[in-house]
């Protein structure tokens, strides 16, 4: 009975996550088509994370974050906040310049960036199977690029920069999660708030006066304003739903759900926005997504083979308290089922695209 209830909960969360993500991308495209300010859209999303997260996390008793030294904060948290802002801006820029379906196909190259950057930064070596799984991703994206009717070079470059930025966030946020014992949702809140504080002056300099003089704002176009507000709420909500699913399932299951979500977003965007595509274009998109699934499976089994231990040892590992700055934090703790501390060996962290 309990297992059926958990399965139903996970299925419900996945459906809500897919709906929020696809709606968020479609609304984002509609907003940017009438209101071409990617930095402003990013600022609205960061503001949503900052405003809604605190009260929501307190309501569900999400563990407060541990104190960090200023050196650690400046070394890891500030660069992560910078990366979050840059990745979000370039992601919105790509959605503005190219169709949502193509932008998400390009973002399927994230495993490639993750493997390369992990090799350079963390000196991590992968198995031959993992390297081979990258081939269909590369081929699929190339086919989609060569057959994309609405191709735009700036949009492609923006999508690649965004994907690279999210890959770097994955690598370093995993390190922060392991070393500090901070709850993943609290880290999301910290990064969103810090990115907002750091880049609000930049927004004032580059965007504010243009935004205020834009017809949609000057004439109080409630359609654009409401779309902006909805986009911010949906972006925050899909972050919460994504991490809720992550906390309830195994890393491989989450990776499969995430790849399936990308297919759902592409399909919904093609149906609602109606951008023209060819069969070769669709084949390229599918090949890239299948490549992501192959990569996730290969990475999962490589990790299992490397870290396989008797079950009682695994139990010990997850009962070991995390220690940060002399403070102890028990994994899991008295967390709500939906928002418990996720498996820190997961391949996802701050990534929601």
TrEMBL record:
Domain spans labelled Sugar phosphate transporter: 10-296
Chief site of localization: membrane
Cellular component terms (Gene Ontology): membrane
Membrane topology according to the record: Multi-pass membrane protein
Signal peptide stretch: 1-22
Record flagged with keyword Membrane: yes
Superkingdom field: Eukaryota
Transmembrane segments: 38-60, 72-96, 102-122, 129-147, 184-204, 224-245, 279-296
Localisation: Membrane
Pfam family, one: TPT
Alphabetically ordered keywords of this record: Membrane, Signal, Transmembrane, Transmembrane helix
InterPro entries: EmrE-like (IPR037185), Sugar_P_trans_dom (IPR004853), TPT_transporter (IPR050186)
Protein name, entry field: Sugar phosphate transporter domain-containing protein
The species this protein was found in: Polypedilum vanderplanki
């Amino acid at each position: 009975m309990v297992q059926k209830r958990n399965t139903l909960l996970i299925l419900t969360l996945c459906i809500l996550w897919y709906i929020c993500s696809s709606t968020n991308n479609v609304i984002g495209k509609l907003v940017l088509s009438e209101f071409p300010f990617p930095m402003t859209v990013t600022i609205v999303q960061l503001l949503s994370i900052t405003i809604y997260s605190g009260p929501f996390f307190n309501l569900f008793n999400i563990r407060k974050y541990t104190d960090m030294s200023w050196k650690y904060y400046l070394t890891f948290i500030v660069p992560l906040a910078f990366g979050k802002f840059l990745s979000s801006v370039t992601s919105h820029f790509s959605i503005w310049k190219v169709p949502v379906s193509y932008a998400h196909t390009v973002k399927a190259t994230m495993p490639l960036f993750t493997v390369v950057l992990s090799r350079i930064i963390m000196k991590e070596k992968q198995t031959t199977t993992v390297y081979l799984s990258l081939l269909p991703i590369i081929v699929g994206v190339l086919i989609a690029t060569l057959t994309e009717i609405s191709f735009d070079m700036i949009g492609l470059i923006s999508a690649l920069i965004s994907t690279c930025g999210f890959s770097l966030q994955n690598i370093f946020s995993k390190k922060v999660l392991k070393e500090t014992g901070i709850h993943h949702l609290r880290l999301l809140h910290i990064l969103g708030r810090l990115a907002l504080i750091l880049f609000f002056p930049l927004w004032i300099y580059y965007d504010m006066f243009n935004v205020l003089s834009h017809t949609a704002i000057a004439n109080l176009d409630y359609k654009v304003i409401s779309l902006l507000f909805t986009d911010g709420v949906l972006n925050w909500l899909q972050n919460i739903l994504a991490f809720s699913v992550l906390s309830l399932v195994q890393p491989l299951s989450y990776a499969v759900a995430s790849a399936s979500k990308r297919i759902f977003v592409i399909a919904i965007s093609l149906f609602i926005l109606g951008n023209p595509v060819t069969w070769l274009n669709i084949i390229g998109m599918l090949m890239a997504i299948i490549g992501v699934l192959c990569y996730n499976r290969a990475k999962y089994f490589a990790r299992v083979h490397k870290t396989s231990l008797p079950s009682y040892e695994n139990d010990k590992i997850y009962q070991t308290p995390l220690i940060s700055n002399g403070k102890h934090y028990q994994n899991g703790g008295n967390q709500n089922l939906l928002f418990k501390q996720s498996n820190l060996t997961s391949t996802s962290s701050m990534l929601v695209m």
